[in-house]
Amino acid sequence: IHPADMAELGIENGDHIELESDVGKITAIAEADETMRPGVISIPHGFGPATGEMDEDGGVSIGALIVADEFYQRVNAIPRMTAIPVNVRRLSSRIIGHQTAEVE
Predict the structure, then answer these.
(1) Which sequence spans correspond to the domains of the chain?
(2) Which terminus of the chain has fewer Cβ atoms in its 10 Å neighbourhood, N or C?
(3) pTM above 0.85?
(4) What is the pLDDT of residues 80-91, one digit of tens each?
C-alpha cells in the first residue's frame, strides 16, 4: 500500500487489515511500498486458503473477493483478478516479529 494511503487510513506496517469487495472479505498484513500508485493495493494471488483468512505465514487468497462466473474473459473463462474495487479498514491486531499482538 502506498505510505500516503496508509497514513490517511491510520494503518502502519504490520497492521492487520480487512479488504472488502462487493462479494467477500479477506484479511491481510499491511506493508508500505512507495512504488505503489496511490489508491491501489497489491496482493499476490494464489497464496493462502480460499476462505479469505490468512495462513500461518500471512498468505491470503484473493478468491474471496472475486466473482468467477460474472466477470471473466469470454475467450478463456479466466475470472477478473485485477482492478477489483475494495474498501480497506484497519483491524485490531498486528504482526510484531512473527507474533500477533492486539492493538488499540
Answers:
(1) 3-102
(2) C
(3) no
(4) 777 889 999 999
